[in-house]
Structures are given as C-alpha cells and as structure tokens.
Amino acid sequence: MLVAILKNNYGDTHLNWAKACDKYGIKYNIIDLVSNSWLAETNASNYDLFLACPPGREDLFKKMYDERIFIIERVKKKFVYPSHSEIILHENKKFLSYWLESNAIPHPRTSVFYNKSEALEFVRFATLPIVGKMNIGASGKGVVVFRDKQRLIEYIETAFSKGIRQAWGPNTKMGGYGKRLLTIIKNPQRIIDRVQNYKALYAEVQRGFVLFQEYVPHKYEWRIVRIGDSYFGHQKVKQGDKASGTKGIDYVLPPDSLLNFVRDICERFNFNSMSVDLFDDGNGGYLVNEMQCIFGHVQDYICEHNGEPGRLTFENNEWSFEKGFFNSNLSYDLRLENALHLIAK
Fold first, then answer.
1. Which of 132, 204, 220, 224 could form a disulfide with 144 if both were Cys (CB 3.0 to 4.6 A apart)?
2. In the Cβ-directed half-sphere of 276, how many Cα atoms lie within 13 Å?
3. How far is CA 38 from each of CA 67, 72, 287, rounded to the nearest angstrom?
4. CATH for the 106-214 domain, from 3.20.20.140, 3.30.1490.20, 3.40.50.2300, 3.40.50.620
C-alpha cells in the first residue's frame, strides 16, 4: 500500500498522518497541495489512499484546498479521507448554514447578507442578543455576541468598508498559562511560530458580507465525535458568552437521544470523521452549531465515564461504553484505522 499525505499551507498538522502511517508500517509520500506541481505529484504514483488535513485559518487557502480535493476525489476518482463532502463543511460557516437548512437539519437560525442595505434592514427587526461570526476561524475567534443595535450597525458598516478581523493574539479564554509558558521555555521557536500565526490570522479580512446567527441561551455546548464505528462526547463549558474555544470540559456521557441524532446525520451523509457541536434546543431536541472533520482535543482522550477514558459504540440497536485509550496522536491513529477499514471494505 502507498499513501499520499496532502499537506496544507500552515504548520505541521500533516505530520500527525505521517506518525500514524509510521505506527502501522505504511509507506507514504507527502505532497504539498499548495505547490503548482500538486496535480502532477498526485498522478506520479498509483496511490491507494489520500490523507487530507484541511486548513482552517485563511479563506484563500481553504478555497484552494477544497478545489484541489474535489479534483482528486470527484474528477480523478481517488479515495480521499476525510472525503470532499466532509472537508467542504470544515471551517466554512456560510456553506454549513446553507447545507443544514437545505437538508432540514435543526440549527440556530442563520442569515448571510451580501447586501449592506439588506443587512441594515435586518437589524431593525432583529431580536438581541445575536451572534456575528467570521466565516472561517476556530476556537471561538471571530465570534461576537451583540446586545446593542448601534454596535451591530457599526459592525455591518465596517464589514462593508474596511472589513472585519479576528482579534490579534492568543485566545485568553483557553487558560493553561503555566503549561504554555513551560512549553515556550523548552522550545523558544514556538513563540516565534505563534506570533507568525497571529499575524496571519489578523491579516485575514472578511469584507463584503456578514453572517448572523440566532443566539441560543446555553450553559454548555455538546461535542460529539464520530470516527468510524467509534463515538465520543463531552460538554464544552461556557465562559462569558461562548463555549467554543474556552477549553473547559465536563466529561458528561451524552444521552442516547443525542448520540442517535448525530449518528443519523453521519450515516445519512456517509461522514466517517466528523465532530459535531450542538446546543440543547430546550424542548428535548438539538441544534447543530458547527461541524468539523479535523479537530483538536485538549486531553489525550475525548470521552470519559466514571473516571475512565473510552468510547461509545452502537451494536444491536444499543449504545455501550468501552474503556480504553482510543484517541492517541490527536485521533489520527484511529482515523487511519478507519480509512484502512473502508479501503478493505
């Protein structure tokens, strides 16, 4: 077997795939999907599998990656993991809102305006608070909760003139400052890399449209993850107005109704590597907030029950918890196992 790892424009996330391949003794080549030679390189060998790591920081490279994955999977008919259908939803809040609405999947009401006058008219009748989001951006950055209509109007005026940006610098809600400082002391290059990252994020300007989402009152946000036949879940604890990006985790085992809701979505659309963030709707149902096919996690596990890490599986029409560590190497080991299973299948 020969595998191609499709590097993106930022950092070394592709090395997680390389580490997984090394663990399982699989030969691989790394292809820089940003390079002009990307297509020739993908055609140079008869690859059995293409392993993707989609970017989520700059809109320019997000669009590039989506387009080139489309060519590899849909035109060249190659096996890509995660699939194009999963990748296109990744860090694309506009597209996700269209996709959820079109497929009648419950989610917070979302409006996307490319016309300034239409956006300003929307403000006249909007119920506050309301959430403004940048189309791309993880960990809650680029998300603003508006409780004042004048601020909302100013936000729209800025979006249709000079554009809006994410805040410069680290996410102050993530905590762990002692651990971060220790990491920097051990590896001073890390602070240089971080500053370059902050510069790139701040340079990302969203201009010409705005995205508003209904504010859903919540104390926490559920995160449910599917990787193959393994499911994981916990609550992301709210700090201030947001749960995203706080890194506060409460390892509460998700109810069967929530697991069934996410499983139905993944089965319906053949999603094998997907993280789904959801709110309780207050009536026993759930609202999908975000979906990402590649995601990080703070601990070396995602799910816990009675102090024991593990996973959830669905067999004989029943959910059960299995103890163990299944999320090594930021879950890339488990993803590779799933990809190999799908090829064999």
1. 132
2. 31
3. 12, 10, 38
4. 3.30.1490.20
